[in-house]
Design brief:
By secondary structure, this protein is of the alpha+beta class. It has helices at residues 23-39, 55-64; strands at residues 3-8, 71-76, 79-84, 89-95. It has 2 helices and 4 strands. A 4-stranded antiparallel sheet has the order 1-4-3-2, with helices on one face. Strand 3 and strand 4 form a beta hairpin.
């Protein structure tokens, strides 16, 4: 039986992020950082996020629907990422490693 890991972040988007970064940059960085944290690796060791989803589409959706409530869920790096309309990022990962 595998070990179930789950990581959750707090919302990070409000038009631009720290230092004026775009929603996409903040959202993309948040997703990749969360996955790397949960998996215990470096972000550069992960598959490019653009191989599994369209970061521009995520940016456009978050920017175009500030008052809507939704969740987007997609498979990435052996787990599932959930991005909520408020910018919250969850990553659920099942590892085959023993505790």
């Amino acid at each position: 039986m595998g070990i179930h890991y789950m990581g959750k972040t707090t919302p990070t988007h409000a038009g631009t992020g720290a230092g004026g970064a775009s929603i996409r940059e903040c959202t993309t960085l948040e997703i990749v950082s969360r996955v790397a944290d949960v998996k215990g690796c470096r972000a550069v060791d992960l598959e490019p996020l653009s191989n599994v989803t369209d970061p521009d589409a995520l940016e456009n959706l978050l920017a175009a629907t500030p008052n809507a409530e939704f969740e987007i869920r997609f498979a990435y790096e052996g787990g599932h990422v959930t991005l909520a309309s408020d910018g919250t990022v969850d990553f659920e990962y099942v590892s085959d490693r023993s505790a």
